[in-house]
Amino acid sequence: MRDRSFAPSRALIYLIVTLFAAAYLAPLVVVVLNSLRADEEIAQSSMIGWPQHMAWGNYALAWSGFCVAETCSGIRPYMLNSALITIPATIFSTLLGAVAGYAVSLWRFRGDNWIYGIVTLGLFLPQQMRLLPWTIVLRDIGLINTLTGLVLIHTIQGLSFTVLFCRNYYIAIPHELIRAARIDGAGFFRIFWRIILPLSSPILIVTVIWQFTHIWNEFLYGVTFTTGQQQPVTAALIALSAAVADIPHYGVQSAAVIIAALPTLLIYLFGGRYFVRGLTAGAVK
Amino acid sequence: MTDVVSTAVRPGRPATSEMVRRLPEFLMIWVPLLLSAAHLISFSIWTIWISFTPSTLIPVAGWVGLRNYTAVLASRNWQIAFDNLLLFGTAFVLFSLITGLLLAILLDQRIRGENVLRTIFLYPLAVSFVVTGTVWSWLLNPGIGIEKLVHDLGWMTFKFDWLVDRDMAIWTIVIAAIWQSSGFAMALFLAGLRSVDTDIIRAAQIDGAGPIRTYWRVVLPTLWPITVTVVVVQLQFAISAFDLVRALTNGGPGIATQLPALVVYDLMFQRSQLGRGAAAAVLMLLILLAVLLPYAAWRYVRGRRAAHA
Questions:
Q1: What ipTM was estimated for this complex?
Q2: How far apart are the first and last CA of chain A?
Q3: How far apart are the CA of A213 and the nearest CA of chain B, in angstroms?
Q4: What number of C-beta contacts closer than 8 Å exist between A and B?
């Protein structure tokens, strides 16, 4: 197993993993290369090729010059929208999830298991079951086609994940710690602030990465509840592909794709270990 | 809020001021939890109710029995979507399991550069399905993608036009989905392989078992619980797949790569058939339950067994 007694086959192992790695990296490499190629160059050959002249202009155009529908502002405003949705929704859902997770795991109250069970059902309920009700709720409270509306949706729906993550983490904290603090007269928030929160960084990092990636990448709600200038970048990318279907501008589109994927790719590169921990949490038991 | 450890309430303190003092705590606990639980329950009930009404452009009261369901089930769009889901779900889950397991076993051989390789296999998971779908739609497009490249290299008879081939287009979604999510299976399997007791492995080797036999007889059987988890998660993804298909084929050519999630969207927001759209959404939920209920039962039985052992 994990010793080196199978030396003869090691070359084969390296060959296979290298081939797989190449296959996994290929799409990213192709898009990066294309983002630096002129449209004529791509049209003459194929999507797969080495840039002859570095067309850095693609990035400038994708960022702030290209037209989506009738607006020629590039994907900058949509990136800003996504940031304005993702950052608050990640912070709110993580904080509320931490407090609620702490409450259901360490401050038992009547019906806590029921409430917790219903909240985690949200992990399984298809988005499609919630599309119409959200449309009506957002319209009635005047938040349809607003970024605030999407923040609200992602905060409430994100609780299913964040409560689950935090609760599973807090349940391992010894109850004696809480009991001792209570005897000293500390209340709910004081214990949370002074004892729980300082212990929470591992789970909070996992939760933040998870929520940020999910909300940034979300598409269905973005395309259903917002139009035009209010859309997040995932919805704008689809609109961009539709807009250039007649005269393709693959170079600019590739640059737009790279820019749109950059925030989550960077988060993954710097927080990948925690990302994996979040993925495998609870599965290996 | 009757917590079991609460014995520190000072005697004689009036109950109302105690209530006021603890109001922020009540709000912070109950508001998010109740909002989350209440929206899940009320939204589900509401969508189920709408699926039994004659609603078209706007929700209206009324009762049409199962008419919306029979209409959806009889429609060609749904039938194709359902067949596609069966094929896509099975192929995607099977191949991503095999790929993930293979990669995990290879990475478990103490090879150099494991961290870099793991990063490479997992990065597609961090990228949105919209990006993934867009990129694969270029690569698989015979006019500008892999087929064109091979033609330019001189092999003119090479054909790889699944994206525009009615019968094969669904397989392009399988390819993109495997690329996107097999890293997830790998991560879980790898974590499982690393948690196998090394004493058992050593014992098998002392008994003269070779590497393949050791894996087959000793290591892989311990991975069953993880396999079940991976299958359930991947199936759940397959059933609700929307973004990937939207970006890759948009259900086309024609309706050849239609999936239930696209049918729901189409009925609700493009054809203004709210009742039928809701019925299709409930059907999606039922398909999901067909996967999740056996899983829940399995977890329950396993939990009981573990408790008795």
A1: 0.91
A2: 21
A3: 6
A4: 280
